Amino acid sequence: WGGGGPLFFFFFFFFFFFFFFFFFFFFFFFFFFFFFFFFFFFFFFFFFFFRKVSYLNELEYNKVNNILQNTQESVPTTFS
User: How far is CA 63 from CA 5, 49, 52, in A?
Assistant: First the structure.
């Protein structure tokens, strides 16, 4: 390019900043939102999963407690 004039620096900085900032920030934000997507996905998955397990345990507890109350083996909650 004639000994490296301003055209050399123009293409050099153009391709340097283009490839560097484009690929770096593109893949950076891509994996950034990618991992945050999976983070919130597994977070809400385990949240609703354990809430469902807790809800089923609560139903199981109420069923056992009703059986105990029907057989008069549990502590009464009301005084009559």
Answer: 85, 21, 16
| Joined tokens for residue 50 | 């354990």
- Tell me if 16 sits within 8 A of 23, measured CB to CB: no
73 φ/ψ angles, rounded to the nearest 5 degrees: -115, 0
What percentage of residues in the chain have a pLDDT greater than 90?
0
**pLDDT tens for residues 9-29?**
667 777 777 777 777 777 777
* Nearest by Cα to 37 from 27, 49, 29: 29
Residue 61 and residue 71: Cα distance in Å, rounded? 15
